[in-house]
Amino acid sequence: MTKYARDEFDQVPQNTSRQGVHRDAQDTARPTLWPVLTVGAVALVLGLAAYLILPNLGLVAPNASSSVSTPAPQQTDASPSAAPSESSSAPSGEPSPGTSPSDVPSATTSAAPVDKTTPVAVYNGAGTAGLAGRVAGLVQGDGWTLSTVGNWGGLPQQTSVIFYNAPEQKVNAEALGALLGIQSIVESPEVQQPLVVVAGPGFQ
After folding, report:
1. Residue 109 has pLDDT above 50, yes or no
2. For residue 200, how many other CB atoms are within 10 A of its CB?
3. What pLDDT sits at residue 78?
4. What does the angle CA 39 – CA 45 – CA 47 come to, to the nearest 5 degrees?
5. Span between the terminal Cα atoms of the chain, in Å
6. pTM reported for the whole predicted model
7. Phi, psi (deg, nearest 5) at residue 7
8. How much is the pLDDT for 35?
9. Would you say 173 and 195 are in contact if contact means Cβ atoms under 8 Å apart?
């Protein structure tokens, strides 16, 4: 028993339900997340299966094959380069626009083979004893045919020279000049023999 006097709040009916703070707490309804998680997991599994399995089975989308196209053949420069190659294959004997007419015979004669059966006359134009015989030995040793060996009776020569009397003999004269180290090559129709070598002063 309390020591306080009873008041109106102490008169509680026996058959009434509890109210206020004396009311039982009721459980509130909480939304469950299991259905959402289950649907998400199933969607994830289907997506992985479609990404990993379907390409291996050859099941691709219709537009996948159309997106892969063979590269178009690139146009090469074969046709433009054909013209220069054709022009370069033209016969070299034809004179070019910058070629003088005098160069054409020299091009044709230089292409002819050397004929060592052409007779070669060797003369001493320096007055040195035995010079003509020594030069004739070099000429004959290289396979040339000798015709005359002696002293030069023409105009005095300041240097060694090789005369030839026809354009077709130029290639032979140049071959003799390379053999003997003579750079002076002169065409002279007045020379009676096809090739004439005059060993002048300073011939080595």
Report:
1. no
2. 21
3. 44
4. 100
5. 160
6. 0.46
7. -130, -165
8. 82
9. yes
- Cβ–Cβ under 8 Å, residues 162 and 198: yes
3-class secondary-structure state, position 132: helix
| pLDDT of 77 over the 60 cut | no
d(CA 16, CA 23) in angstroms, rounded, equals: 11
Q: Is the pLDDT of residue 197 over 90?
A: yes
**Tokens for 132?**
């003509």
Q: Which residues pair with 149 in a beta bridge?
A: 122
More confident of the two residues 65 and 57 = 57
Which residue, among 154, 159, 163, has the nearest Cα to 196 in the 3D structure?
Answer: 163
Nearest 5°: phi and psi at 66? -75, -25
Of 101, 100, 119, 99, the residue nearest 166 (C-alpha): 119
Per-position DSSP letters for 73-94, written without gaps between them:
PPPPSHHHHHHHHHHHTS-TTS
Instruction: Give start and end residues of each alpha helix (H) in 53-146.
Output: 62-67, 78-88, 103-110, 131-141
